Amino acid sequence: HEKKLSSLQPMVPLLEAVIQTQKPLLIVAEDVEGEALATLVVNKLRGGLKIAAVKAPGFGDRRKAMLQDIAILTGGQVISEDLGMKLENVGLDMLGRAKKIRITKDDTTVVDGFGDKVEIEARVAQIRAQIEETTSDYDREKLQERLAKLAGGVAVIRVGGATEIEVKERKDRVDDALNATRAAVQEGVVPGGGVALVHACKVLEGFTGDNEDQKAGIAIVRRALEAPLRQIAENAGVDGSVVAGKVRESSDKHFGFDAQNEEYGDLMKKGIIDPAKVVRTALEDASSVAGLLITTEAMVAEKPEKKSAGAPDMGGMGGMDMM
Question: pTM for the complete prediction?
């Protein structure tokens, strides 16, 4: 419903029909307030009809469009007064359906909506066309969000383990994997294992520097870009300089070192990849911090403590008692 819901009285015929089906009901409206909100709270406390209400996403015309997205995804209809529809006339055939709906204090997720696939694909095509036509970056971002919700789909990942610590560890790994996947979707992937940074060094070949300071800076950046690959190789018990040299000399941008199997090969085919966004932001952040340190007049560091040599061991003296 595109308007605020202040009373459930207009929905009484619909609620009576829903009770007969013994199925839960989700209301999506601009807002739920006053008598309607109080009725829902009392109903929840008394354990009556399984009914929940959430605020519709977005604002203004964008809210209307997103409500239409939800209606198409679930096979329902948007109750709009602009189209002459009223809550009193809503029937069960106008409601959408879904296999599962998960509600938290911040989000509502629809899983397996019962919408018609042809209509969903048509809506997706319409949004893609709008993305191509719009000249506003903000509108493009919002349209892409809508497109992702319609075309992206929803999956449930269940994580288990023998102990609480094991479950927490696995959950953290899944969270890391999800974040990496989101980053990969945004900007794509590059060969992992530090290979992308090594090949990025080739850009520096055309830089000579106008003075000794610039030459030193170029050398530092070149060495820093190879550091991840060198460290990975050394952690595997291999000479990092040798590995970095072989990767640097290769013309194949996917060629790299598989530390787990201690062999060289096409890292993309081996599935050893990094999200391009992660590699880019790591390099940008490191450059930013390094630049800040260079331009700072003074820096603070812990002074290493000098360990005293201590008195030499005199050895024990036989026959002497210690008091």
Answer: 0.53
